[in-house]
Amino acid sequence: MTDPRKEFIAQLRRYQMGSISRRHFLGVTGLGTAMAVLAGAVPGLRPRPTFAAGEIGDKVSLTSWPNYHDQANLDAFAEMTGATVELTVFGSNEEMYAKLKAGGTGWDVFVPTNYTIQNYVDADLIDPLDLAQIPNYDPASLTDPRMTEPGSIGGKVYAVHKDWGTTGFVQNTKELPDKITSWKEFWDITKDKASGRVMVHDYQLTTIGNALKYFGYSFNSNDEKELADAEKLLIEAKPHLFAINSDYQPSMRNGDAWMSVAWTGDGKQLHKDIPEIVYVLGKEGGEIWSDFYAVPKAAPNKKGAYALINYLLDPEVNTKELLFHGYPVADKRVIAKLPPDVANDPIMYPAAELLTPLEFGASDVLTNPLRAEIMARFKSA
Amino acid sequence: MTDSAVIQERSRRRWAYVLLAPSAFWYLALLVLPLIVVLVYSVGERAETGGYQAAFTFDNYLNLGARWTAFQNTLTLAPAGTLICLLAGYPLAYYLAVKASPKTRLFLLILVVVPFWTSFLIRTYAWMFILGGRGLPQLLDYIGIEGVRLINTPLAVLVGIVYGYLPLMVFPIFVSLEKLDKRLLEASEDLGAAPFATFRQVTLPLSAPGVITGCMLVFILLMGEYLIPQMLGGGKVFFIGNALVDLFLQSLNWPFGSACAMALVVIMVVTVTLYLKATRGTGGRDVSLM
Fold first, then answer.
1. Engineering a disulfide at B214: which of B13, B94, B169, B237 sits with its beta carbon 3.0 to 4.6 angstroms away?
2. What keywords is this UniProt entry annotated with (chain B) (predicted)?
């Protein structure tokens, strides 16, 4: 069923990403379509509909991150259940938390990051999940407790694992041929050769965190003196930045930006389409994280929420999602289905010595007023 | 006789109250009460995990300097945008109202209105491409002008502002020029005034109400602008509107955000009052904003 309006939006989106190249078309859409055709042709591979059409309402809202879901999967869900998925993307956990805290969001499913889940529980914004409604959630098949356990608090499962990744940076090696391996170099080059061509996230955890790494401090530091150093660096770098935005793919693709703080999957997606864009983990460390699916206490369509989470955790669907977004999933059933080149991909599965210095975000960082104010000052500077 | 007149008068008044009630309620519930809430919040404190906590302190106001750049950007780019809109909008309105033949006038008016049929967001997105590396700069590159950067600069924001708000300037001026009695222009000419003198002494004063209305509309809306700096400024050219969004949605510092909002309201009230005072009498007619 090709809706011309949807097709147009898809084309527009692709144009917006600055990538109507054939390579990209085949790489992203072609792959998705091929997978969908394959899955459709083999009935056993098709996710089993658990709901009659209309049973879960006509829409489920999903609040997530940029470039994080394969639209083909969401469309298939709509076709299967009659409920369209309304996707909203955010640029930071702070913003997500603030919106949900303010209330009246209408979200059914959202995607919080490991370190924030405690905050949501403390603020009484999420309930333990009714796992009986998510038959595709299988604790036995989860492979890495570090990635999956932050969803459980006090022995109760509040959120289920979506995928995990790292926060490094992407670099266009055609424009910037230097070998850059550290956050120190990242910031120094920003103020020098790459002036006007660098992006950082509109997200205090990673932007301040990676400025802290310049000095070798902890990514999670709440120390006043250390944060003051980081702020000084950020304010110095500000005139040399191209933009402060967590959706950096469009600018990296069209060549406006040469370097950006980036997450694994965006690094993977960019590298796949434009091989000269590489993904680098700063050797001082930085962030390792894991994302989850959770249901707000105030979700208007809880039944739809569970149906969507269950659908997205279906190993078939989850694999397709992974092949689209490029973030590793800590689930045996998914890993078993990955083609070897993906399963051994150096961007998705970095070398152990690069992973060791990485830190998980800490829950007090989310609501630290000083970090929030530093970020706000940096942005309005 | 007099009694019935009084009764009639009373019932007329009662009707007036009934008819005014919805707008009075609207005004009270959606303007006055929220403003009071903002005022109360602005002397409060940020709660431990963000939000509002009751207190009585002026710290938030004393801290306004921390957003100086945002105020500065707003207070330079909003008037600059208004001025450019005026300089670009006046000739257009003049042509539409005075020079164009009725047929072309209709066509041209439609051209001014048509962009409104598309969402402002989408039109601003279009400017992201036009001003981005693969848009105008690439075109300039072909003809030998290299290294031009447009997107995420104050200039890009200014371009977006003028593009977005120009019609709001054109229409009030157009209306006031259209009402202008053309015989006055002939009279001026007959009395020996040069075209420019006629324009300065007749046309301009008579179109002043339109100019004042247009400037107010554009300026007031620009002071609260959020979208254009966000999209064409790349988070680098910050308006006070952007700082507000940040304070409420990222820092969760509602009291400081409220203080910034109050400061903006005060600045607006002061500038608008001064502006109206200064321009009163220019047109010989009352300024009609609404």
1. B169
2. Cell membrane, Membrane, Transmembrane, Transmembrane helix, Transport
Question: How does DSSP classify residue A48?
Answer: P
Q: Is B235 on the interface with A (CB under 8 A)?
A: yes
Residue A102 is predicted with a pLDDT of 86
Q: Which two tokens stand for residue A137?
A: 């959630």
Torsion angles phi and psi, residue A290, rounded to 5: -145, 135
* Cα(A125)–Cα(A100) distance, integer angstroms: 7
Q: Are residues A83 and A98 in the same domain?
A: yes
Q: What is the pLDDT of residues B237-264, one digit of tens each?
A: 999 999 999 999 888 899 999 999 999 9
The rounded percent of chain A whose pLDDT value lies above 70 is 86
B149 — contact with chain A (CB < 8 Å)? Answer: yes
Neighbours of A143 (CB within 10 A): 15
For B117, other C-beta atoms within 10 Å of its C-beta total: 6
Contact across the interface for B50 and A196, Cβ inside 8 Å = no
DSSP letter string over B175-200? HHHHSS-HHHHHHHHHTT--HHHHII
Tokens matching residue A252: 């990296």
Kindly report the three-state secondary structure assignment for every residue of A69-94: CCHHHHHHHHHHHCCEEEEEECCCHH
Classified by CATH at the fold level, domain B69-279 comes out as MetI-like fold (1.10.3720)
Question: Domain with A337 in it: what CATH number?
Answer: 3.40.190.10
Do the interacting molecules here have an ipTM over 0.90? no
Q: Which of B70, B133, B134 sits opposite A380 (nearest CB)?
A: B70
How is chain B split into domains, by residue range?
69-279
Same domain, A235 and A354: yes
Distance from CA of B244 to the nearest CA of A (A): 10
- pLDDT over threshold 50, residue A23: no
Q: Which residue of A has its CA nearest to B244?
A: A376
Which range marks the domain in which residue A230 is found?
Answer: 165-288+346-380
A17 and B CB contact within 8 Å = no
**Tally of structural domains, chain A:** 2
Q: What is the pLDDT of residues B37-75, one digit of tens each?
A: 999 999 999 988 888 999 999 999 999 999 999 999 999
In this predicted structure, the answer to whether residue A128 has a pLDDT above a threshold of 80 is yes
